[in-house]
């Protein structure tokens, strides 16, 4: 009995770790997609080399700002603070944990039944997003 119990303990910890990392990845992608969707599609940024060619010209191109390297870097610097807006929800059938927003982007009411949000949940999710990835 002790051997069977000992063999189950690592899988429970591994599943919690997997749930946390999958939830962190989903939360990260959701936040990035939301922020990208809020950018004006006509907004551009100059990219390219700022070196001067022998003929005196420069190789500068304008690219869409949304999804540009500069924009994504800016978003990744701010995404850690967004993890405070997430809570943990446990599926009653499978006991798998998922992470959901507890504060909506647009101010609409949200169903928070069964959602746990406290310092432990947000700090573990923030650590998984900001330090683990």
TrEMBL record:
Q: Which residues form the signal peptide?
A: none
The DUF3456 domain is annotated at 21-132
GO cellular component, alphabetical, reads: endoplasmic reticulum
Pfam families registered for this protein in UniProt = DUF3456 (PF11938)
Q: Which family does it belong to?
A: Belongs to the canopy family.
Write down the PANTHER family for this protein, in alphabetical order: MIR-INTERACTING SAPOSIN-LIKE PROTEIN, PROTEIN CANOPY HOMOLOG 2
Tell me what this protein is called: CNPY2 protein
Which species is this record about?
Hippolais icterina
């Amino acid at each position: 009995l002790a051997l069977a119990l000992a063999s189950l303990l690592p899988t429970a910890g591994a599943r919690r770790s997997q749930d946390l990392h999958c939830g962190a990845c989903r939360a990260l992608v959701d936040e990035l997609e939301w922020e990208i969707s809020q950018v004006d599609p006509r907004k551009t940024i100059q990219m390219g080399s700022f070196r001067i060619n022998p003929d005196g010209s420069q190789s500068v191109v304008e690219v869409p700002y949304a999804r540009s390297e500069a924009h994504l870097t800016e978003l990744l610097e701010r995404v850690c603070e967004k993890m405070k807006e997430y809570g943990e929800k446990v599926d009653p059938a499978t006991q798998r944990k998922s992470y959901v927003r507890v504060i909506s982007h647009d101010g609409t009411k949200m169903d928070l039944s069964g959602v746990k949000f406290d310092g432990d949940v947000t700090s573990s999710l923030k650590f998984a997003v900001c330090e683990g990835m």
